[in-house]
Design a protein that fits this description.
Helices cover 9% and strands 56% of the residues.
Length: 206
Amino acid sequence: MNIVKLSISGIKLILQTFLIVSIMPVFAQNKALSEYKGSMIGLKTNIPYWGTASFNAGLEARLAAKWTFEVEAGLNPFSGKNDDGSYGKSMRHLRIHPEIRYWFCEAFHQSFIGLHVPYILYNVSDIKLLGTEGERHQGWGTGIGVSYGYQWLLHKNWNLEATLGVGYLYFGYDRFPCTNCGNKQTDNHKHYFGPTQAAVSLIYMF
């Protein structure tokens, strides 16, 4: 699970971006592949992720003809803390997402499958869709997942990628009431099975 702020605007941006990807012109795939061969590194950013007020970037490197390794990072530094010490809505987090990928055609072109081991530090408050309505959860999470994605060649130096992943995540966190965040209520642990990744990324190739 990419742990992001699932606001209405963020959901709309994700849906709109996937719609654009789904109707991309077929001619983009008909360009001569000779223009694109030889790329070794891709610098990317997840477009819908920006809709959650999270800075994010990733770097992917070719290891072999059909293998690449990617590391993505996301940061939301906004705590939502009020002047009286209480917390409003917040999706503060630091997320690291390493993934190794196998490409069915060649690296950075068409379909791939991946294996990822994400890690996240978070301080989430009053987000209903994440189960923190009226309270704050502060902790960490990690796990393992698999993904499937597709990459389109837009230009000699530009690609577009869509990917989805599912897997298992373990969370350990402290639970606080938002109105009195200095008093910890309980220590908690959670096991999660479900989506672990969702991205539509714009990539600059080197």
